Every structure is written in structure tokens, then in C-alpha cells.
Amino acid sequence: MTYDETPKTVPPAPKVPLSKEPSPAHELTAHDRTTVGPTTGERAVLWAGFPVLGAVALWLVSRAAGWVASLPWAPMQGPFKLIASAPEPLLSIASVAVGALLGLAVAFFAEREYVTADIGPDRAALTVDGVTRTVPRAATAAVFRDGKNLVLLGHDTAELVRLCGDFDADRFAAAFERHGYPWHPDGDPYAADFRRWVAAQPDLTSAAHALFKARAHALKKGEKKDAEQLREELARLGVVVRDDKDKAQHWRLVQPAQDTDAPTE
């Protein structure tokens, strides 16, 4: 028996085109999450900068206490004379220590003003001032920045969350978009629907007008918690509220739930 020893040519395997990077909706699972908030550098500046500034400021006050106490027209003569009478080095040590502690206190409260988020394809957990609110992705129709507020709207255009605090809009936008949330870079897609509240407007119920009146009083007195609670009461009546820089209240009514995301401009 003879064998054909002529080498055979094996056809090359067909080239399979490289697939493009899958979209986040296909790529990410419920376990793939993004945490966004203040950077390590921002926190370092906060926790180191304020104590140093406080220490330096109070030390300078202690240096100037004697001079201020010598001015007959200067206010608070008593405290400045007391500071100037303290012996050294006790005065310098105490002023630096107290200033640093005051700076730490300021840093603590400033830290609580940061907005942090744990975002995934199924839900977003948003935290500010120690309070966390969780919003399902399926319920979210729009995400945007409104001044110092981070706002998420539902499919009926109602506000699911409005958080007031410090956050980097670009970093939050990237995190939300990575997980398929509809971020609106131009702000509220329903901004044109807002009207300034005026007593006895016919489109609002008497209950809504009563809440608006009480909220106007709370805003005037600077009672933020009461104003926020009254905002939530108005939301239960289907009224969305936002305030301008002069504390005037603007409102719009929620719309019927939609199957698609909020319209873009």
C-alpha cells in the first residue's frame, strides 16, 4: 500500500472579528458597582487644612489680643484683655490647640455635606449628612444637577430623590452613565414647566396652598428641616417644588407615568 506524501494545505481558520466593548447594560451585573464621592485629596485638604487654618488664625488672634485691648473703641474688651493676660508659652499652646480643634469641628460638618453614591445597574444608594436613600434603576427616568442638588426623577416626573450637598457633577455623571442611568447634562428636562407659587392659584388645591404658605414661613425663618418635610408633603399631593436663590417657591405637577425616559432638550 502506498501513501501520498504530498503535503496538504490546510485552509486558515476564518477570522472572527473582535467584538466591540459591550454596553454597560450587557457588561455589568448587580455585583458591578461604582462608588463616587470626594477624592482622597479633597478629604486630605479638608481634614488637614481646616485644623491648620484654625490653629494659625487663633494664634494670630492671641498675638493681636494685647493691641486690640489697648484700643478704647474696640469691642469685646473683656475677652481680649483676658487673652492678653495669659502667660507664655501657655497662651500660644492653648490658642493653637483650640484653633486646631475648632478646625476639626468645621471639617467634621463639612464632611457630612459631601454627597457619596454607590451606583450599580440595579439601584443607586445615595448618602448625604449620614442619611442613605436607595433608588431602583428601573424607577429612574432622569438624573441631573440642580444647583447644589442631585435630583433623580421617576417616570411620572416626580422627584424620587433631591439631595443638597457638595459633589463633582462630572464624576457623578460618568458613574451614572456607566451603569445606564439617563444623566441630563443640561439640568432639569422639565424646568420650563415650573411656575412661581402665588396664593389662590386655581391649579392647586387648598391643601397644597396651605402647605406652600407654611413652607414659605419656614424658608423665611431658615427652618430647613421643616421646609424639607413640607416639600415631601407637597410631593405626596403630586406637586414638585424647587426654590430660587431668593427663597421664592416654584412648582409643577407630576405627569402620567411614561414608558420612556424623560424628554431631552
From TrEMBL:
InterPro entries with a match to the protein in the record: CysS_C, PH_YqeB
Keyword Phosphoprotein found: no
Residues covered by the Cysteinyl-tRNA ligase anticodon binding domain: 202-252
Keywords: Membrane, Transmembrane, Transmembrane helix
Region of interest (Disordered), ranges: 1-27
Transmembrane segments: 44-69, 89-110
Keyword set includes rRNA-binding: no
Residue ranges of every copy of the YqeB PH domain listed in the record: 34-184
Name under which the protein is recorded: YqeB
